[in-house]
Amino acid sequence: MAVHTFRQALILDNLLPSRHDDNHMMLRFLKARKFNIEKAKCMWSDMLRWRKDFGADTILEDFHFNELDEVLLYYPQCYHGVDKEGRPIYIERLGKVDMYKLMQVTTSDRYVKYHVQEFEKTLSVRLPACSIAANKYIDASMTILDVQGVGLKNLIKPAREVIMRLQKIDNDNYPETLHRLFIINAGPGFRLVWSAIRPFLDPNTASKINVLGTNYKSALLEFVDQSELPDFLGGSCTCANEGGCLRSDKGPWKDQNIVKALLSGEAKYSIHEFMSNCKGKRGDDKLHFVRFSDKSIAQSESEDEDIALAQKYPDLVATAVCEEVSC
Fold first, then answer.
1. Same structural domain for residues 83 and 165?
2. pTM of the model
3. pLDDT digits (tens, 9 = 90+) for 2-11
4. By 3-state DSSP, what share of the chain in percent is helix, strand and coil, each rounded to 5?
5. Is the dihedral of CA 156, 159, 165, 167 positive or negative?
6. Which of 197-206, 238-247, 250-259 is the least confident region?
7. If 0-12 CB within 10 Å is exposed, 13-18 middle and 19+ buried, where does residue 137 land?
8. How many domains does one find in the chain?
9. Which of 27, 210, 225, 230 is deepest in the core (most CB within 10 A)?
10. 131 neighbors 310 (Cβ within 8 angstroms)
């Protein structure tokens, strides 16, 4: 299997620290490099070097973004709810971004750190919580970009520089974490640009992107329940008791029972026990999340997913912001 071969190559070159010994993480890097082992290994090595230099392994504990409330005024964004398959939904209202005012309440360096911190939180908290809630392995998110009102004012030099930094970080270090992207309220100008660049995108990447005009609601509701969408996107949720949808961080990761399971270790797994149970079998035994009782609350869908799931969560404790699309 490609992941096994890749893992052995990483071990041989001393490139597999225990915290990243994760089959699914390795698979994401393989996919990003079309299953070319050497190219994936180079990408992986660069990722480890970046994490060390940036401090990504400890950023959840040692970075505090105290200006978040002010930042959201000038760069509205949030995680809010899940799609019909249980994936977390990330939303950005790009037309309301005011880069001048944003840079008055934070700095580009601090915003980039916040971005990375949110991505780390998504990988270590949001996706595991969604996996428990959905009863299956969740490894990617859905993104909605509202481009209503986007114009030259949103593309000033500081904005372009930040976007380029975020894009490089996402593409180099968090590959294959975007399941589907909806770009809504796209005007004729945006659609013209999109029609020009789409042929140059990788077909798999292009297939994830849906560009919609102002009549986007029915398309979104094919994938998201109305109760999971904020009212400003045509949904029924207001998060009135949480300070509004932009500040609520609504999702399974806020469920206290799920949080307790994640933090207490009740949702941990033994890969050795699982391998013993399924040895010599194909699909007979399933790996379960167990919390508070012997009740199964999350079950993966195949043996390969079971193995990936078991390896993903041995040390689970408590952005993604949008993964930029690369050509």
1. yes
2. 0.80
3. 999 999 999 9
4. 55, 10, 35
5. negative
6. 197-206
7. buried
8. 2
9. 230
10. no
